[in-house]
Structure formats: structure tokens, C-alpha cells
Amino acid sequence: MDKVNAPAGKVAFLGFDFEAMETGAAVARLGAVPAGQAFSYVVTPNADHRVRLEREPELWPLYRSAGLVLNDSRILARLAKFDGLDLPASPGADVVAGLFETVIHADEPVVIIGGVDEDIAALKARYGLTDIRWHQPPNPLRTNPDAIAAAAAFVAANPARFHFLCVGSPQQEMVAAAALGRDDAVGVALCCGASLEFLSGRVARAPDWMRAAGLEWLFRLASQPRRLARRYLIEGPAIFRIWQAAHHTKA
């Protein structure tokens, strides 16, 4: 069994099989993965992902094929606590930052799917990276199977310890699953959404106190109200109904 799939404290919650680990432990786990290891990928579902899965259950295999499932949501962590479960939040953006700051060497290859020129330039400058291999797929990606296959082929053609898939969910999970299905890719892919936007400074992230209080969603909503209002104010509250329904099912 490879290291990214090594057993840890598993927590089954709302259909996910989470690894119950803090950010530092997740970074250490991923940092121990050797170069050339058979491909696997990391997903970091949050409340928004779980709500979408209620509408689109056909997406569940994308999460169940992952080698590592981390909890990206402090809302899920608190709901789990009500159920007597210890499910720490390990946000994908924090895991990605930890990898760049403490694990990735300046001269090793790093594969990025998505992002923009500004992100790539900023990452090179900030971390002294000399071998970023960047692929920008077309948009929309989700309904373009040829483009998903091309992104997966890029992953396979560019061996690296870490691949960062930054094309939003569920597109990034689709690319990861396609790369897994090829059988010729190596390394670990992180489905990491806007993480590189935060690292590059192109998009501001909530201050530490808001993140600790579980209010990062409010900061993002205030920053991008037109894009995020539906997600957070209309669709997002369904997570509480889903959680309550899970209780009725158990009963």
C-alpha cells in the first residue's frame, strides 16, 4: 500500500470516508510520498461539494476513487462533532501552502493544471521554482471529455511528485480520475480549486481569525457576491437538511 493510501484515523461522515487529520499531519503524509510512486489523488470535500452530490450522485465515484479524502470544511467538522465524531478541518488551501513552503524543492518538477499567467509567475518568484509544467485547459471543461483526457495525458506525460489541479470542482476531480484510469501517471494530484490564487496573492484570503471561526465563506461572499451568493445563501444551507436526513436514516 502506498503512503498516500496508508491507513489513518478514518471517519465515515455524510457518505465520505475521511482521514481525520490536521493540516500539518496531511502535509507530512504527502511529503513522505517518494518520487515515481503510482498515481493517486487527494480530494478535499466541503459542504458545497456534499450539497452538489445530493443533486448529482453520479459524481460520487470521483471521491471514492481518491487515495486521500480530507475535510475542507469547518462546518462539516462542527456537524460531525454534534455526532460525537472527531473530524478536524484540513483545508485544501492550507495543505497546498504547506507543501510549497516546507516540502517542494525549488528545482523539482511541479505540474499545474489551470490557473493563469499571473499565478504561475507569482509562484515562481515566491518559491524560486524552476520547473513548473503548466497546462491550461479550455473552458468549459466539464462538458468537454476530450479536454479532460488531454489534461490527464499532460499529467501522465510530466512525471512529478505533485500535480495541482486548479480547475474547480468537479472538473478537477474528473481530470484526476481520468489520470488514475490511464495507469501510466505517477505522483499525487491535489484537487485544490482556488488554492494557487491565494498563494499567488491574486485573490485575497480571509484573515486567520475568520478562518478559525468558520467564517471564511462570509469573507469570500463579501469579496465575490455575484459569483458566490447562490452557492452560499441558496444552495449551501441544504447541508443542514442533508445532515438531519442522515440522522433519520440511522434511526
What does this structure look like?
- By secondary structure, the chain is α/β, with parallel strands linked by helices.
- It has one domain (3-250).
- The chain has 13 helices and eight strands.
- The chain has helices spanning 23-31, 47-55, 60-64, 74-82, 92-102, 117-127, 145-157, 171-182, 195-200, 208-212, 216-223, 225-235, 238-250, and strands at 10-13, 16-19, 40-43, 68-69, 110-114, 132-135, 162-166, 188-191.
- The strands form two sheets. It has a six-stranded parallel sheet with strand order 4-3-8-7-5-6, covered by helices on one side. The protein has a two-stranded antiparallel ribbon with strand order 1-2.
- Strand 7, helix 8 and strand 8 form a beta-alpha-beta unit.
- Helix 1 packs across helix 5 (92-102), helix 7 packs across helix 8 (171-182) and helix 11 (216-223) crosses helix 12.
- The longest helix is centred in the middle third of the chain and has 13 residues, at 145-157.
- It is globular, with a radius of gyration of 17 Å.
- The model has no long low-confidence stretch (mean pLDDT 90).
